[in-house]
Amino acid sequence: MDRSQQPENTLETVPDPLPAHSTATVNEAHRTHAGADADTSRAAVRLRDVHYRVDGRPVLRGLDIDIGAGAITAIMGPSGTGKTTVLRLITGQIFADSGVVEVEGRDVAQLDRDALYAMRRRMGMLFQNGALLTDLNVFENVAFPLREHTRLPDRLIRTIVLTKLHAVGLRGAVDLLPQQLSGGMARRVALARAIVMDPQILIYDEPFAGLDPISMGVVMRLIRSLNDALGVTSIVVTHDVQEVSQIADACYILSEGRVAAFGSPVELAAHPSPMVHQFVAGLADGPVPFHYPATDYRADLLGLTTPA
Amino acid sequence: MSGLGGELLASLRAALERLGAMARFSGRLLMLTPSGFLRFRLVVEQIYNAGALSLVIIMTCGLFVGMVLGLQGFDLLQRFGSEDSLGTAAALSLLKELGPVVTALLFAGRAGTALASEIGLMRATDQLSALEIMAVDPMQRIVLPRFLGGLLSMPLLTAIFIAIGLFGVQLVGVQFLGVDQGQFWSQMRGAVELGDVREGLVKGLVFGAACSLIAVHEGYNAAPTAEGVGLATTRTVVISAVTTLVLDYILTALML
């Protein structure tokens, strides 16, 4: 009963170890912090001339990306530009047709199964829909990686899980099942699960998609504060330009399988390329056309074209 | 004509590819099997899901199959004046054919579809990918316990089906139609051998392996969409039913 009285979505619930900022001050907070922690000169993840095809159709065509250790790097771009493919390459779910994908200095494609799993244990990933295991409650979902990979006693597991849930503001929800959670809550539980093994690299796949403004603000602030408090490298794949601009240290904009632009959010806002301008400003028409390729409109309406 | 031939060839190739994929999947599962027993708690959970939750349907159907067998058997045997053999006839047909086959068909419909749709939905909602990223092998953590749970449940369900079926035969034959109770049981005891019981249980085990394997394979390889999960469920029932009947012929021929 008393759970319902806790203001779960408000900023006050967020936890002592990760001090609450309003989103407007997040950037200032991190700039001072990032100076101390982030070593952006050392790349945690490096993609070099990566090509990838699906059914003969090129998705990535010579992609070069460096993701600085300890920083938040956003990978943005219109739908279908291969953003999720990049994530799957980094996590070793798929392998590049040519080019090199290095994580912490090791070529992902050269790792055997054990080494790949060892690498993944140092990664945490937040899936778009949370991907919580539906037959386990919130507590067991967060405890899952610990139970699978460690032989810690139950008491310690409990302490770790509650700490992580507290960090995302959902310690009160331990007994709920995934289907009882709202979209934003599910994503925060998934975030707690992603950080439970204290990963070096945190990957977010569309973390803001489909969230209400409050949940979006909460998730946004969590990404920033977790990055700074845990000293991890964060990779955020998204097309929510405004949101990610407030927290990212560096942004890549992909287009047609290549890097169209790279820079800080401020630099990108003033980028000369019309495509980047269209994307950042969210214009309907421009180099990325509004219309799917079609025959002449007038001829089509007058019935002068033959249907395909 | 060449178009038809080409299509036939293509569909034959597709079928062979599926069979090959299934063989590789089974091989992988077989290699993992010993590790499945190390975490037996997960298997026990699945024995509950596939076995205990199927009990009601298995018992209800067993009872009615037995009762129908009682009626038909009585009618048939009466024509030869040997209705006292009802117990033997019913026990042999239940043990050797009806028990394992009907249980397998029900199992495919009740537990197989549940397995396929559960794993398929886990695929569609990225849960399997999430396990991969958490460095947990979904084959070992999700597929293997479900396969073993189904495999171990089937012989037990078969035995229960046969027992309840015999009760149904006895209910109709002895209680309603007036077959002599002593004759009913003593003839059955005299004619049924341990080999007949073993045949039923071996069939149950083999059908259980086949149906569980088909269910987890279809679920694991389902297309990650609502349609894909639906298709996987349908395929599970259809392929399981056909496989069960084909295997039944082969096993019967081998064991007779």
Brief write-up:
The complex is a heterodimer of chains A (about 300) and B (about 260). Chain A is of the alpha/beta class and about 300 residues long. In chain A, about 40% of the residues lie in helices and about 20% in strands.
Would you mind describing this structure in some detail?
The complex is a heterodimer of chains A (308) and B (256). Chain A has 308 residues and is α/β, with parallel strands linked by helices. In chain A, 38% of the residues lie in helices and 22% in strands. Chain A has a single domain (2-271), classed as 3-Layer(aba) Sandwich (Rossmann fold), CATH 3.40.50. Chain A is built from 12 helices and 10 strands. In chain A, the strands form 2 sheets. A 6-stranded mixed sheet of chain A has the order 6-7-8-3-9-10, with helices on both faces. In chain A, helix 5 crosses helix 6 (154-167). Chain B is mostly helical and 256 residues long. The interface between A and B is medium-sized, with 22 and 14 residues.
